[in-house]
Amino acid sequence: MLMKRIFPVIKNILLLSIIFAALFTSCTRQNYRDLTIVDGVLTVGVEIGYPPMEYYDTDGVTLLGFDIELTKALADILGLSVNFIDTTWDGILPGLDTNRYDIAVNVTILPERQERYNFTKPYIDSSIVIVSTVNSSINIEKAEDITGYRIAFQGDTTAQYFTERLREQGIRFSSFSYDKIINCFNDLTIGRIDFVVTDNIAASFYTEKENSNFIVRWQGEPDEFIAFCLKKGNEPLTIALNNALGKLFNNGTIQEISKRILGSGISPAILELY
Question: 251 vs 69, 92, 202, CA distance in Å?
Answer without folding.
Answer: 15, 30, 26
